[in-house]
Amino acid sequence: MRHLLTASMPRDEAIGLLDLAEDMHQIQDRELKKLPALRGRTVVNLFFEDSTRTRSSFEIAGKWLSADVINVSGKGSSVSKGESLRDTGLTIAAMGVDGVVVRSGASGAPALLADWIGRPVVNAGDGTHEHPTQALLDAFALRRRIHGGAARGKALDGVRVAIVGDIAHSRVARSNALLLPALGAEVTLVGPPPLLPPAAADGSRLGVRAEPSLDRVIDERPDALMLLRVQLERQAGKVAPSAAEYITGWSLTDERLARLGDAHLLHPGPMNRGLELSSRAADSDRSAILEQVTAGVSVRMAVLYSLLASDHPSAELGGAR
């Protein structure tokens, strides 16, 4: 694997990354959370959009692998002075860095950067396009919920997952719609018709099913429900439900939670409690939301290791298994 730009990958490759993340996950119980695998490597986190979970977990992942991690934000870089993404990338590469993690509001920016700089690039979210490490950590957390301690080597065959909310603007939904079916899951996209992309009208182009009624999906008792943040900042001037309409039709309210059965609950964060889901749902035993956050560090360690440690003299896992 030279870059991680998309969640579209062969089933075996996805399972391999999830299994490697299981190895990395073990060090979270250690008093000293360090592996020597990326000692001497330098990783730049280049974030042009605000982030808490993704940026922090990439920073922790790099440091736990003993890499030197440098955080660069758009607001504090020469981009704010008009420098292009290409020139920023070439400048960073000229400093001798080994890999770049990039988040951008422009769809396709990580792929362009990968072509320009000749270094491994990880897509940490690009516009409304993709967020592959989020899909991997979602799959990791769900796989552990489904298979328990025997998750290694397992996929998600036959697991029914409903992704609910602002599908049209969600890079998380797009990446999950690519990755989860590759792992054998049955995916349904649920949301208000204005927030379902045209390609999801019958699901044929995405290989998933689309359904405008959350209540019908709940009556089918899915194995997992993934709630998405309503991205108000991307809806200016567009026809979309009001907050009251959204709650009435698509929020996981306490009443819907009671009808949902034993389905596992996921949310990529940040949550809008009371809009996408109730506090009772977010804090229930069925919620894997904090497990997703924990999984983010393990999955991103696995990605950085796969990209940067293959030819490195300190590439041993150092007893992570």
UniProtKB/TrEMBL annotation:
Q: Which reaction does it catalyse?
A: carbamoyl phosphate + L-aspartate = N-carbamoyl-L-aspartate + phosphate + H(+)
Question: Can you give the residue ranges of the Aspartate/ornithine carbamoyltransferase carbamoyl-P binding domain?
Answer: 3-143
Cite the InterPro entries for this sequence.
Asp/Orn_carbamoyltranf_P-bd, Asp/Orn_carbamoylTrfase, Asp/Orn_carbamoylTrfase_sf, Asp_carbamoyltransf, Asp_carbamoyltransf_Asp/Orn-bd
**PANTHER family from the UniProt entry:** ASPARTATE CARBAMOYLTRANSFERASE, ORNITHINE CARBAMOYLTRANSFERASE, MITOCHONDRIAL
Recorded protein name is Aspartate carbamoyltransferase
Role this protein plays: Catalyzes the condensation of carbamoyl phosphate and aspartate to form carbamoyl aspartate and inorganic phosphate, the committed step in the de novo pyrimidine nucleotide biosynthesis pathway.
- Pfam families recorded: OTCace (PF00185), OTCace_N (PF02729)
Please state the Enzyme Commission number of this protein.
Answer: 2.1.3.2
Q: How the protein assembles, per its UniProt entry?
A: Heterododecamer (2C3:3R2) of six catalytic PyrB chains organized as two trimers (C3), and six regulatory PyrI chains organized as three dimers (R2).
